[in-house]
Every structure is written in C-alpha cells, then in structure tokens.
C-alpha cells in the first residue's frame, strides 16, 4: 500500500485559505439585510484582498472584451425583467456598488485562485455555486438560478480577463442596474 505524501508547506498554506473560504461563505450567507450586511461583505472582501493570489497583469483587450460582453448580458437581463428592481436611495445604491466589489474580491479573486488549483472549470464553477447560495438567505430560493448564471458569467469574465477587476466592474454595474428606475 502506498501513501501519497503532501508537502507540509502546501498543506499548511492551504488550510488557512480553506478556513477563510468557509468563514467568508458562512458570514455572507448569514448576513442580515441592511447596513450590517454591507459591513460583513466589506470585512470578507478585505480579508480576501489580504491574501496573495496567482494573477497575471490585466490584459487590456481580453479585459475589455469580457467586461463589455458581461455588462451587456446584465443590461439585457435587467431590462427584459423589470420586476427585478430593488428599492433604495442614493446611499443604498452606493453601498451596493461597494459590496459588489467586495464580493468579487472574495469570489473571483480569492476563491477563484483557491479553486484554480483544480483547473479552470473548477475555478469558474465553485465560486459561482457559492455566490448563488449566499444570496438565497437575502432574496429567497427563486434567485438561485439567476445568481448561478450571474456567478458563472462573472467567473467566465475572470477567466478570460485574467483579473478579478473585470467581474468587479460588471457586478458593480449589475448592482447599479438593480436600482435603476
């Protein structure tokens, strides 16, 4: 019988990342509606930004292409489904934009990098599924297919652009569109 050894450095490096991933997902899923939710998302995003990740430089053409395609998809969905509109004032909209960037730092920067160790498909799929699941407590189970599709699109953008700022820009736009009158 042979046992495959895992170098201690790799195991020690991955355990804290998995702990942060689990804590981040749990905190985002358990967040209440309103201002406390924003603080939780910001804390999770800040923690995710503190970890070094494997990311190349922004490639301008793929970044622009992914951002335009993703943004166009969100615009099309928003205007084809007018019932998706959320209510809120200027402060709420500003918070929603900041939360979008924080969520992308966690999902498409930190979790993407963690899942990428298992290949590009896992890097796109795992954060997308978790992204969809954390929104269920806030909005209900009906959002699961919509948020899964959004998460897959945002993950695709991360893969194409090579950087998490493309899905962050698109997610911020999507949150702005959610309040559009």
Number of domains: 1
Largest sheet: none
Shape: globular
Query: What fraction of the residues are assigned to beta strands by DSSP?
Result: under 5%
Radius of gyration (Å): 17 Å
Q: Strand tally, please?
A: 0
Secondary-structure-derived class: mainly alpha
Q: Between the first and last Cα atoms, what is the distance in angstroms?
A: 65 Å
Indicate the percent of residues in helices: over 70%
Order of helices and strands: HHHHHHH
Poorly predicted runs: 1-10
Number of helices: 7
The averaged pLDDT comes out at 89
Oligomer: single chain
Which labels suit this protein?
181 residues; mainly alpha; 7 helices
Explain what you see.
The structure is a single chain. By secondary structure, this protein is mainly α. The chain has one domain (about 10-180). About 75% of the residues lie in helices and about 0% in strands. The chain contains seven helices and no strands. The protein has helices at about 10-30, 35-50, 60-80, 90-115, 120-140, 145-160, 165-180. Helix 1 (about 10-30) packs antiparallel against helix 2 (about 35-50), helix 3 (about 60-80) runs antiparallel to helix 6 (about 145-160) and helix 3 packs parallel to helix 7 (about 165-180). The N and C termini lie far apart (about 65 Å). About 35% of the residues are buried.
């Amino acid at each position: 019988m042979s046992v495959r050894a895992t170098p201690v450095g790799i195991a020690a490096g991955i355990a804290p990342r998995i702990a942060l991933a689990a804590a981040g997902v749990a905190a985002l899923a358990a967040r209440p509606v309103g201002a406390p939710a924003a603080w939780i998302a910001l804390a999770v995003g800040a923690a995710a930004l503190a970890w070094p990740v494997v990311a190349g430089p922004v490639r301008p053409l793929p970044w622009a292409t992914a951002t335009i395609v993703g943004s166009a998809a969100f615009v099309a969905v928003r205007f084809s489904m007018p019932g998706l509109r959320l209510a809120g004032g200027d402060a709420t909209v500003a918070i929603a934009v900041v939360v979008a960037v924080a969520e992308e730092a966690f999902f498409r920067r930190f979790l993407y990098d963690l899942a990428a160790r298992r290949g590009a498909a896992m890097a796109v799929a795992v954060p997308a599924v978790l992204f969809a699941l954390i929104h269920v407590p806030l909005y209900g189970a009906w959002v699961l297919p919509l948020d899964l599709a959004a998460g897959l699109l945002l993950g695709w953008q991360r893969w194409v652009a090579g950087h998490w700022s493309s899905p962050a820009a698109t997610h911020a736009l999507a949150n702005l569109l959610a309040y559009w009158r």
